[in-house]
Amino acid sequence: MILDEQTIQQLVVQNTTPLMVLDCAQVIEQYQLLQQALPSVDFFFAVKALPHPALVNTLNQQGLGFDIASQGEIELLRAQYINPRCSIHTHPIKKDEDIKAALRFGCTTFVVDNADELHKFVAYRNRVGLLLRLSFRNSDAQVDLSKKFGCRPDDAMHLLLEAKRLGIHVKGLSFHVGSQCRSADMHVYAIHQCHKIMTEYHRQSDSLLSIIDIGGGFPVNYDGQTQDIAHFCHPIREAISQLPAELEIIAEPGRYLVAPAAIAVSSVVGKANREGRPWYYLDDGVYGVYSGRIFDHVHYPIKALKQGPLFPSVLAGPTCDSIDVIEEAIDLPCLDIGDLVVGEMIGAYSTATATRFNSLVATTIVTLNAPEQIPVSYIA
Ligand SMILES: Cc1ncc(COP(=O)(O)O)c(C=O)c1O
User: Fold this and answer.
1) In sequence order, what are the residues at sequence separation of 6 or more whose Cβ sits closer than 8 angstroms to the Cβ of residue 260?
2) What's the pLDDT score for residue 146?
3) What is the structure's pLDDT at 178?
4) What angle do helix axes 96-105 and 71-79 make, rounded to 10 degrees?
5) When you count CB atoms within 10 A of the terminal residue's CB, does the N or C end of the chain come out lower?
């Protein structure tokens, strides 16, 4: 997201820092690019990446569904009158209260990855359709999501047959091969493995699975070296084209839709010289909008609005903790207190994972091009 200096200054005058500016029009552009790259896939936005009402409304108007994982995310959708049939609950581990709350909302698709979780659905077997999540470890992903979740592909058949024995409807298979993937190799491998398991399950049980959920992992270009989405998705598209046409393919993108659509605007609130280098302290840091530096392992493109010769500098956050350093080695002009620093591509897993450590003010989220009215697509 590119905003000119004057617009940023105006937003700061109106809202003061720390700020995150989210452009809903750019979210739509991201969605269109992903849709063009994977035209036969139905998308469910992973709300966890940026749970914000304007974003939910924007994506709802574009016809996306929603991937939810908690009662809080359900409340966000409910408050925006989202049709619950357009939601899938993808957390593989849930309390009974979580299942009940999702069912009360009207969400009936859930994810499981083990026998204990499967048994939680016996009581609700007439009301749900499940996806069985498989694990595919992926060293090509910045964030590995298959260590904590997913059954081994070798265990899938046993779990599918157990579900059938219990009378629980399994609709399909799902996976998440990790976030911010460098290549689509593991998506392709996982799609082929899922198809093999589905074929074998059909042979053994005479039952059909109808969905493959290919998760997220679609990368954005933080480092200027990431391949564009059409290129990244090309092998996935090829793999999908080899599947039976009647299979429904869905995905749960988070990062790709929102990361490039937001910037963080923070003020320099203090400075020091330590061991020969300038340190600049901002009013936002790794406990705030830059939390993705810790949890998401991202180095964001960061620059000062001020122009001038650049010097190796340290950029730190406002809390009392020494881990609150945004960049240890960043080239910045000589900054003064009050100068503005802009972090780009910061829409995903930023405010979503921020904490309130030191009881500092939360980053204000300002939206641009947000839908004017909440579309009442569902009336309870
Ligand atoms: C179950 C699930 N689906 C989707 C996503 C979104 O993944 P990404 O942001 O890589 O698209 C995540 C991310 O943690 C996830 O855990």
Assistant:
1) 1, 26, 30, 220, 221, 344, 345, 347
2) 85
3) 97
4) 10
5) C
Instruction: Give the C-alpha separation, 342 to 140, whole Å.
Output: 29
Residues with Cβ < 8 Å from 25, sequence gap 6 or more? 368, 369
Query: Based on the domain organization, do 232 and 316 belong to the same domain?
Result: no
Q: Mutation test of ligand 1: which of 138, 252, 255 has the most ligand atoms closer than 8 Å to its C-beta?
A: 252
Enumerate the H helices of 133-278 as residue ranges: 156-166, 185-205, 229-241, 255-258
Confidence of residue 372 (pLDDT cuts 50, 70, 90): confident
Task: State the pLDDT at residue 2.
Answer: 76
CB-based contact 1:263 (threshold 8 Å): yes
Same-domain check for residues 247 and 267: no
Helix, coil or strand: residue 111: strand
Confidence at residue 380, expressed as pLDDT on a 0 to 100 scale? 40
The strand pair at 277-282 and 311-316 is best described as parallel
248-292 pLDDT, tens per residue?
Answer: 999 999 999 999 999 999 999 999 999 999 999 999 999 999 999
Asked if 233 and 362 sit in the same domain, the reply is: no
Would you call 320 a catalytic residue per the annotation? Answer: yes
What is the tally of structural domains in the chain?
A: 2
Atom of ligand 1 nearest to the CA of 178: 10
pLDDT band (50, 70, 90) for residue 379: very low
pLDDT of residue 374: 56
**Ligand 1 close to Cβ of residue 288 (< 6 A):** no
Considering the domain architecture, whether residues 77 and 107 belong to the same structural domain is answered as: yes
Instruction: Answer yes or no: is 159 within a domain.
Output: yes
CATH number for the domain including 47? 3.20.20.10
Residue 376 confidence (pLDDT): 52
255 lines ligand 1 (CB under 6 A): yes
Q: Give me ligand 1 centre to Cα 154, in Å.
A: 23
Containing domain of residue 148, as a range?
25-258
- Angle (nearest 5°) at CA 142 between 288 and 355: 15
